[in-house]
Amino acid sequence: MTNNQTNAARPAPAKILVLGATGGTGRAIVAQALARGNEVTVLVRSREKAAELKGAKAVVGDARDERVLRQALKGQDAVISALGTPASPFREVTLLSTATLALVAAMKTENVARLVAITGIGAGDSRGHGGFMFDNVIYPLLLRKVYADKDRQEAIVRDSGLDWTLVRPSILSNKPGGHAVRALTDLSGFHGGTIARSDVANFVLDQVGNDAWLHRAPLITW
């Protein structure tokens, strides 16, 4: 299935908690969310990390700490998770799944139902669709353990009982956005692809309050 959502109706402003807000995609999400008139809260490890996210309310703490997550979730309408982790060729990765498990529990306690979580091309049934270099060199040598944790993360989200959408961007770039975005669930014949972080942010924000991709995991690309 393909759906072009570039001109989709934007949801009304909301109160949004963003995890992973200091990463490249997270910063784009925060900036666009504020520009749309949303109230944005970010969970960061330190005040210094939040200094560049002007206009957002900062809660300081660890994303794996359910108590901190509950504090950040109070009064929110939705959560966007842009959590990431560096390449880890040798060491096991658990950050994404551990934080997501704590997040789901905290969201249920605080009665926040809407979750949009970014994983990536190579997660779940999108594995093997990243193009020759990604599938045969980058993934097995650098990202295998990261993606094992992304798979665990996706399973937790799917089993959460929340109103979730999983978003799998193709290879991320820092190029200017504004391109038409394709959202795919049928990956037959698809290999490779790139997308700007700003276009990922735009698509992700469109899913807050929009059920077009509810309980599904589109791969997004140019």
Topology order in helix (H) and strand (E) letters = EEHEHEHEHEHEEEEHE
Radius of gyration from the alpha-carbon trace, in angstroms: 16 Å
Number of strands: 11
- Could you say which structural class the secondary elements and strand pairing correspond to? alpha/beta
Just give the CATH class: Alpha Beta
- Helix-residue proportion: 25-40%
Q: Largest sheet, if any?
A: 9 strands, mixed
Uncertain parts:
none
Q: What is the CATH third-level topology name?
A: Rossmann fold
The first-to-last residue Cα distance is: 15 Å
**CATH architectural designation:** 3-Layer(aba) Sandwich
Tally of separate domains: 1
Number of helices: 6
Q: Specify the overall morphology.
A: globular
Q: How much strand content do the residues show? A: 15-25%
List the strand order in the largest sheet.
1-9-11-7-6-5-2-3-4
User: Mean pLDDT, rounded to whole units?
Assistant: 94
CATH superfamily: NAD(P)-binding Rossmann-like Domain
Can you describe this structure?
The chain is of the alpha/beta class. The chain has one domain (2-221): 3-Layer(aba) Sandwich (Rossmann fold), CATH 3.40.50. The chain contains six helices and eleven strands. It has helices at residues 24-35, 47-50, 66-73, 95-109, 132-158, 197-206; strands at residues 2-4, 15-19, 39-44, 57-60, 78-81, 114-118, 163-169, 171-173, 182-184, 194-196, 219-221. The chain has a nine-stranded mixed β-sheet with strand order 1-9-11-7-6-5-2-3-4, with helices on both faces. Strand 2, helix 1 (24-35) and strand 3 (39-44) form a beta-alpha-beta unit. Helix 1 (24-35) crosses helix 6. It is globular and about 45 Å long.
